[in-house]
């Protein structure tokens, strides 16, 4: 549910008019808008924001692991309208140990390496990604080292904290 104060922000109002079911919540902190987008709507919302509202740049894409809470993962998209110097953060919550969300590489080519990094380090799969392979860890690495439940004490490549 979007708070009334957020609805007064033009970009939030535009998204709500376009597809009110795409947004499940949001916040406004330090003059920065963060909108929670339903996983099935992320590509359409990104296309709308790029095409209709000039968010021509994906400035970053990362992930947060809220383990042991569910939904466990939160994929964070950092959008930037260069022409208006406006920033927008989109959040997609994903459940379970095998999270999947649609790739936004068709909207911004720069998403390619960001999504590969999130896949490599957190294990989030990006459906329809053109080359979802490891980018930081060796190809034979087991597990995803930025998950909060990653074994730091052993395993094939595990870090030994002694």
Describe the overall structure.
The chain is 23% helix and 28% strand. The chain is α/β, with parallel strands linked by helices and 162 residues long. The strands form two sheets. The protein has a five-stranded mixed beta sheet, with helices on one face. The protein starts with a helix and ends in a 35-residue tail after the last strand. The model has no long low-confidence stretch (mean pLDDT 92).
What is the terminal separation in angstroms? 47 Å
Q: SS-based structural class?
A: alpha/beta
Which bin fits the share of residues in helices? 10-25%
How are the strands of the largest sheet arranged?
A: 1-2-5-4-3
Which series of helices and strands comes N to C? HHEEHEEEEHE
Largest sheet features? 5 strands, mixed
Using the alpha-carbon principal axes, give the shape. globular
> How many domains make up the coordinates?
1
Please name the CATH topology: Beta Polymerase, domain 2
Radius of gyration: 17 Å
Assembly type of the chains comes to: single chain
Q: What is the name of the CATH architecture? A: 2-Layer Sandwich
**Mean pLDDT rating:** 92
CATH fourth-tier homologous superfamily? NADH:ubiquinone oxidoreductase Nqo5 subunit
Question: How is the topology of this model organized?
Answer:
Layout: H1 4-7, H2 10-18, E1 23-29, E2 32-37, H3 42-53, E3 57-65, E4 73-81, E5 86-94, E6 100-102, H4 111-122, E7 125-127
Parallel strand pairs: 2-5, 6-7
Antiparallel strand pairs: 1-2, 3-4, 4-5
């Amino acid at each position: 549910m979007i708070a009334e104060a957020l609805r007064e922000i033009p970009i939030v109002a535009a998204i709500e008019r376009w597809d009110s079911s795409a947004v499940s919540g949001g916040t406004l902190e330090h003059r920065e808008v963060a909108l929670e987008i339903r996983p099935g709507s992320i590509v359409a919302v990104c296309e709308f924001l790029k095409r209709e509202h000039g968010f021509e740049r994906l400035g970053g894409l990362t992930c947060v692991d809220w383990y042991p809470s569910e939904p466990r993962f939160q994929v964070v998209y950092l959008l930037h309208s260069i022409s208006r110097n406006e920033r927008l953060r989109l959040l997609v919550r994903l459940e379970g140990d095998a999270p999947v969300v649609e790739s936004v590489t068709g909207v911004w080519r720069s998403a390619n390496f960001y999504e590969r990094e999130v896949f490599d380090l957190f294990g989030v799969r990006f459906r329809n990604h053109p080359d979802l392979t490891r980018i930081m860890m060796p190809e034979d690495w087991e597990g995803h080292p930025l998950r909060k439940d990653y074994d730091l004490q052993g395993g094939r490549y595990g870090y030994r904290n002694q």
